[in-house]
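Below is how a single chain appears once it has passed through the pipeline. First comes the sequence as given, then the structure the pipeline wrote out for it. We keep one example in the README because the format questions we get most often are answered faster by looking than by reading.
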Amino acid sequence: MTGRTLRLRRLRRLTPGRGEEGAGRAGRRAASKVAAPKVVALGGGMGLSASLAALRRITGELTAVVTVADDGGSSGRLREELSVLPPGDLRKALAALCGDDDWGQTWARVIQHRFQTEGDLHGHAVGNLLIVALWEQLGDPVQALDLVGKLLGAQGRVLPMSAVPLELQALVKGHDPARPDEVDTVRGQATVALTPGEVLSVQVVPADPPAVPEAVAAVLDADWVVLGPGSWFSSVIPHLLVPELLDALVQTKARRVLSLNLAPQPGETEGFSPQRHLEVLARHAPKLALDVVLADEAAVPDRESLADAAKRFGAAVELAPVARQDGSPKHDPELLAAAYDRIFRMHGRIGPWR
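Resulting structure:
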């Protein structure tokens, strides 16, 4: 038995909702038809923000688990100068969890505000500085993020997937356009995201990073886990490269939804079909099972091929209109919320969630 397996077992014993206590909670949920499911959403950047903006409309028991491999912009500068986790994707997740009232929207704008100056503050986001200041004050990244969430009135919790900053490395074919057939190792999330070549695979450094225990516990205790949408190689797949987090995703009794992007991303997934996104995911996490693959109905030209790819994960495909009506490749939070709500109801267990 590995040390990681032992830690997962200890987390199960410490996690509310297991054993007799869990049976009691399940009974209470069964007694109330309006009880909200516990949902964990994994990702980073604007993809995760879109998912969170939708999910907070249908459940009050929401946890975001955020990638920590960003090395560009304000996050990269703070990471390099202060040796901290990159705060940018964590900030975006917190902003997405802000309510629609004046308080929530005001704070969402404040933490997303970037300074425009000729000096050293140029480009820094207010939220990034706030988060890093609390990290230095408290010495505990989870406690600091909880405190920021409380200040904002965030409708959910935000956690980093790992307690150490990670470097993303990718094998890329044709990263140098002058050598289209050669495979190079490309380092850094920002560089991987913008490569003109074909990303073949990704890994993180260190190769066996520790997961944040609260993130593992949230996955094990969830009713639903949502993975994606987002930058496939730099925001979605990295969660599967943290061994303890992947073990939790494989072993959890939660149902799992994979939310696909509305369009291929220039650089990372240029030319990818919806089913190819699944094939890449399977190569990085062959033991991962899914219950539902959600895709926008207008973004799937070959429904049969997508269904076949989903079956390899044991998943059904749900097609729904989830894109904004302005034609941009962005999710509409209301439509995405409706799709998630329908999935949770249609594919949820009859009676107690567990």
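The chain has a mean pLDDT of 88.

See the next section for the split statistics.
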